[in-house]
Amino acid sequence: MAFYSGKTRNIQFRQKQLRTLLKFTQDQEKEICEPIFEDLQKPYAEILLSELAFVRNEIVTALQELPQRVESNRVSKPFIHQFDDCMIRYEPLGTVLVMGAWNYPIQECYPVIFGGLNLAEAVLKQRFDHVFYTGGSFVGKIVLEAASKHLTPVTLELGGKSFFKNVKSHMQHNVTAMNNLHQSFFQSVHVSLMTSVISTFLLNASLGGKYVNSSQQRYSTKMSGRIEGSIEKIYGNLGRRVARLIDKKKVAVGGEIDREDKFISPTVLIGTEPNDPIMQEEIFGPVLPIVNIATVDQAINLVHCR
């Protein structure tokens, strides 16, 4: 392998590779953006901002800082090593497998191969010096188990739940409903961060009716239309998974599912219980579950249990 031959350790070689990658993202910008739009319906401007701009900035930063990053640092030494030359020397990690999330194929890792769980399991049979994985806990467990067979170090960036609570009896229902709907549903298919800003809403039970009425009004006037390339478009296995998480008996707003047109409308669920399936993982879709709580302490305990 090239790494063990020592060829890739040279700093000039690594800088050349980075410059080549930077030039590629510039020369092939259209070829990179078009398939992302076809697969995820991300607008061109969003791809440039949330994908390529991040990658290019990281490359430029690495080019500037690489000489300092690899520079050895001398350290203080105990008495028994007074005649030794002691330093911290930084070495490349080796052959690293980066498994990025599907919603950011360029930003999180520049992929060599695309595929689902079966492909991931096949790749993990190979030996790597380190594995980085971004995604859900289900596949994360598979990654960790597979890597353990080779004692490969693993870094897991796993998704989860981020709660929003509002137990104030005097809250402005219209404003709160508007903010929650937009924060929860804006690019909710693409952006795990945005779905985690308010992935679950903790609401005082006595306020539920007023909040739901405000949400229904906001939805009907602002968000009910089907816009081509909008956040409601969900594809393949993701759409089927999100559809299974929607309990029809608990739908207060939206809830429209059109499998043929691959459409799921922005949806608010009421009366959600902590052990419901939708509370067990990141949603990655336009669905906002509401959990009724009575006190701030109850809300805190619920969050701690997660």
TrEMBL record:
Family the entry assigns: Belongs to the aldehyde dehydrogenase family.
Biological source species: Trichoplax adhaerens (Trichoplax reptans)
A molecular function GO annotation: aldehyde dehydrogenase (NAD+) activity
UniProt xrefs under Gene3D superfamilies: Aldehyde Dehydrogenase, Chain A, domain 1, Aldehyde Dehydrogenase, Chain A, domain 2
BP terms from Gene Ontology: aldehyde metabolic process
A GO CC term attached to the entry: cytoplasm
Alphabetically ordered keywords of this record: Oxidoreductase
Name of protein: Aldehyde dehydrogenase domain-containing protein
Lineage: Eukaryota, Metazoa, Placozoa, Uniplacotomia, Trichoplacea
Pfam families cross-referenced by the UniProt entry: Aldedh
SUPFAM superfamilies to which the protein is assigned, alphabetical: ALDH-like
Residues in Aldehyde dehydrogenase domain copies: 9-107, 122-302
